[in-house]
Design goal:
single chain, 299 residues, mainly alpha, Arc Repressor Mutant, subunit A, Tetracycline Repressor, domain 2
């Protein structure tokens, strides 16, 4: 307690040192209070606990500071609802995506409306647009994951691999590990059926070809970076990627028309055609017929 500050209670402050804290509130004489004897007389003993005021202020401040720190610290009970909300959003997004693709593959892309998708999921059309801008975005949503997976696999290929070998090995490696990534979003079989929807829907096929052109440019620049080339002055990265992408498109069409529409079936036909890409570009076809040295065909 500082000098001149009034006591927190009617009980007078405990004596500390007369030289340090002078008496500021005189005791009023009364019939029941004996007069003061002298300035040198010792003050009467008081039954007050010693020095309570300052420690209580420090204690109160410490408690308030601790409470403030607790208030500023993240509250697990508040973080939990935020995590739950995020998981709920992911579930809603996944349900919209799977439902839309199922409707596209059973009813047809053009025959399915956004209202149809929202009705099956039991959400509003406004909720659909919170997650997807259009039906087209839904169709290519998983394909974006596949493309990112392939680009990462290409970056990881050893630097000593020639460009076409790096492209071949990257796409096969991506196919080997894609099932798990796709399964987190929808069944692999359902994803593969989207290729049939794309091939049979002119608007989606046009969007697919546009996206393929954009993807080709990204891959060409990756190849140029691997080889230390300037893609704008050296045509080889774009030529190699054009050949590679042509094989990928034709094998996708053959897979859609074939009987084995499994992931393994797509991988097998892709590998078979990519293995013929190098020889097709660098050898004399008439002197290297399949399985027949010298070009002899037949018996």
């Amino acid at each position: 307690m500082t000098v001149g500050q009034s006591a927190p209670s009617p009980v007078p402050a405990a004596p500390v040192t007369p030289a340090t804290i002078p008496v500021t509130t005189p005791v009023t004489p009364s019939a029941s209070t004996p007069p003061e004897k002298s300035e040198k007389s010792e003050p009467p003993e008081q039954p007050e606990p010693p020095e309570k005021s300052e420690p209580s202020e420090r204690s109160g401040k410490s408690e308030r500071d601790s409470a403030g720190r607790r208030d500023m610290a993240p509250d697990p009970s508040e973080a939990a609802p935020a995590g739950l909300r995020e998981r709920k959003k992911q579930r809603t997004r996944g349900t919209l995506l799977r439902t839309a693709v199922e409707l596209f593959t059973t009813r047809g892309y053009d025959e399915t409306t956004i209202d149809d998708i929202a009705r099956v999921v039991d959400v509003s059309q406004r909720t659909f647009f919170r997650y997807f801008a259009s039906k087209e975005e839904v169709v290519f949503e998983v394909q974006r994951t596949v493309e990112a997976h392939f680009q990462e696999a290409l970056r990881d290929r050893p630097a000593h691999e020639p460009p076409l070998d790096a492209l071949r090995n990257a796409v096969l490696r991506a196919w080997d590990t894609l099932s798990e990534a796709i399964s987190e979003v929808m069944p692999v079989e359902l994803y593969l059926r989207t290729f049939q929807v794309i091939e049979s829907t002119p608007t989606l096929l046009a969007a697919h070809l546009r996206r393929c052109m954009e993807m080709d440019e990204k891959i060409a620049r990756l190849i140029a970076d691997r080889e230390g080339l300037d893609v704008d002055t050296d045509p080889r990265p774009r030529v190699a990627v054009a050949a590679f992408s042509g094989v990928m498109r034709i094998t996708g069409q053959l897979w859609v028309r074939g009987e084995d529409r499994s992931m393994a079936g797509m991988r097998n036909i892709t590998e078979a055609y990519l293995d013929r890409l190098g020889p097709a570009l660098s050898t004399d076809w008439r002197s290297s017929a399949t399985g027949r040295p010298g070009g002899a065909v037949g018996g």
